[in-house]
Amino acid sequence: MRWEVIKRLRKGGPGVNVIIGGRRGFSEMGRPRDRDFVETVEGLLFCVVGYLHPPDRVTAYLKYVPEEGGKWSRGETGYARVLPYYHVSQVENTYDYLRESHPRYLFRCPVRNITVSAVPYEDVRTYYRPGERLASIVEEGPGDDLEYRLRDLVTILTGLSGLRVGDLGVTGSMLTGSHSPEFSDMDLTVYGAEASLRLKEALLEMREEQSTVRPFTSAKKEVWSRGREGRFPLSFAELMEFAERRWNYGIFMDTYFSVHPVRTYDEINEEYGDRTYRQLGPIHGRGVISDASESIYLPALYGVEDVKSDAPDGSEISEIASYEGLYCDMFDPGD
Predict the structure, then answer these.
(1) How much is the pLDDT for 279?
(2) pLDDT tens across 242-267, in order?
């Protein structure tokens, strides 16, 4: 396995005072979280990444841009998707677009020591929260066939898991209202470790029953695995094993859906600037998973032990962090 080694250091000296929202005035309980969306003053739609954000802006990747006649639409505005699928190479491609057209949304992060896309709060026209959007669809009534399907799916999932609608949200194009009932997916969020594990258990139980909520067929798993060959350093056989382990994807009423765990505010245990990171370079190594309790979120965090690697300077590897969703909740202790 090829790992990118990042040195994580405790920040010395004065701490960083983070005022969430900057000039836009977001409250602490409204702090940005993974899979929220922001719309800029130009109409660009960004998806929020993770939980560590600079004081004056939100870290997010560009996903949709306004385009006349675009495949996605909201009212009179069409949108094109500039991120065909989530992968670091595709995110980097969006940097080329931003560098050419909107360079102010590229930010050299002094905490991570890399360039990322990030939207200053003063350029946020609309901030979208998945929980608020789902509550609106459920309480005020669906506006199209896809929203009806989403409401019915949520009714089934909450009924079987014992969760409340407030434990869930909807992200992606359905969050921004730019979805199409003909081809869009239903991308759900679930908030907190306890709620995520209860929903996981319910989805796995439904696999054993004749349910309208269905897992991928063997043929669909093969298509999924073939589509990821070449993107990841994994064989087809390994990708098929990943497909078998994935619990948070399925089909409901012939529509693809996904479920993405997100931290509650109480579970965000690190502030921007608490630690700084610097890149040491790629390494190869083998190890055993010792702790997977933080792997359901993005980034997925795994504790590792008995590691043998070619890390420089004899660096001890005790944790793996992955921003690639493929590896979320994929491994168990002992793997």
Answers:
(1) 85
(2) 999 999 999 999 999 999 999 999 99
The pair phi, psi for residue 264, each rounded to 5°, is -70, 165
CB-based contacts of 329-332 (< 8 A; 24+ apart in sequence): 329/200, 329/247, 329/248, 329/261, 329/292, 329/295, 329/296, 329/300, 330/242, 330/245, 330/246, 330/295, 330/300, 331/289, 331/292, 331/295, 331/302, 332/289, 332/292
Q: Compute the distance between CA of residue 109 and CA of residue 106 in angstroms, rounded to an integer.
A: 9
**Residue 24 confidence (pLDDT) above 60:** no
* CA nearest neighbour of 111 among 4, 3, 9: 9
Q: What is the 3-state secondary structure (H, E, C) of 21-84?
A: CHHHCCCHHHCCCCCCEEEECCCCEEEECCCCCCCCEEEEEEEEEECCCCCEEECCEEEEECCC
For the residues 30-40, what does the mean pLDDT come to? Answer: 93
| Interatomic CA distance for residues 147 and 174, integer angstroms | 8
- What does the block give as tokens for 229? 């060959």
d(CA 264, CA 258) in angstroms, rounded, equals 19
For the record, the structure tokens of 51 come out as 């939980």
List the chain domain ranges: 17-128, 130-266, 274-327
Residue 80 and residue 66: Cα distance in Å, rounded?
6
Phi-psi region of 8 (alpha: psi -120 to 50; beta: other; left: phi over 0): beta
Phi then psi for residue 126, to 5 deg, are -140, 135
Residue 121's closest CA among 103, 97, 105, 100?
Answer: 105
> Quick one: 85 exposed, middle or buried, by C-beta within 10 A (0-12, 13-18, 19+)?
exposed
Helices H / strands E in the chain, number of each: 7, 17
Core vs surface per residue 268-298: b (16+ CB within 10 A) or e = eeebbbeebeeeeeebebebebbebebbbbb
Angstrom distances, CA of residue 215 to CA of 67, 180, 188, 196: 35, 23, 15, 17
Cα→Cα distances 9→108, 127, 197, 304, Å: 18, 32, 31, 18
